[in-house]
Every structure is written in C-alpha cells, then in structure tokens.
Design brief:
Layout (H helix, E strand, L loop, with lengths): L15 H29 L3 H36 L9 H8 L32
C-alpha cells in the first residue's frame, strides 16, 4: 500500500512554480555552455610544469647561442689576425703569391728629338681658347 505524505507545510502550487522551474532549466543550459567554454580555455592554458619546461628551454637556447657567437668571434678574429696583417720578418701567403707573379713588360714611348719644340703661331692665325 502506498504511503501518503503530509504536504501541508509546502506552499500551495499556484502556477508560479512551473514558470520558475522552466526558467531554472533555461539558466541551467546557459550555465552548462559557460562551463564548457571555461573548461576549453583551461585545457589551452599553460600549467606550472609547462612554464618551468619553457624556462629551461629558453636558458638552454641562450647558452647555446652565446657559445656559438663566442666560437664564431674567435674564428673570425683568428683569421683576421693571421691573414690581414702579415707576421714580421716573413712573407705572408698573399705577398709570396704577388712576388712570384709574372710582371708585364713595361710600355716604352719613344719621342723623336725636336718634336717637343715650341713654335709660335703664324701672324693672323686665330687661336681658340682651351676648354678646361
């Protein structure tokens, strides 16, 4: 046999309860959508471990870049000091190559005697001014 409940302490149903329940259900759907968006954002944010790993990675890259830059600077400076200025008392490689290169024959211009004597212009000859 079913048991009967005493509902005398509950407010009487006057139609407003159904409207409140409908509104609460609609709000529940909106709350669920907001919760989904929040959870999606939380999945995309970095955790403490992610931040620590990125910090360690950045430190490794900085150390590697400094090592590479220092190495390349030492190599360039060694090359410049060895080949840009030759050592004293010895021929450098470039000077020895230049010393053994074959020199072209000199050009000799022969001017006959008397060809450079100055002669005055004849009377009545028009002279034009020289252009600079």
């Amino acid at each position: 046999m079913p048991q009967e409940f005493d509902n005398s302490h509950l407010p009487a149903e006057d139609g407003r309860t159904e409207a409140r329940v409908t509104r609460l259900e609609a709000d529940g759907v909106e709350i669920r959508e907001r919760l989904i968006r929040i959870e999606t954002r939380l999945e995309q944010t970095a955790t403490k471990d992610d931040v620590e790993r990125m910090g360690a990675t950045i430190v490794k890259w900085c150390i590697g870049l400094m090592f590479g830059f220092t190495t390349s600077t030492i190599v360039v400076m060694t090359f410049v000091l060895n080949y840009a200025s030759p050592p004293q008392g010895r021929f450098s490689r470039l000077e020895s190559i230049a010393a053994t290169a074959v020199q072209p024959a000199p050009i000799i211009i022969t001017i006959p005697p008397g060809a450079l004597q100055w002669q005055p212009a004849p009377e009545g000859a028009q002279t034009s001014p020289r252009k600079p």
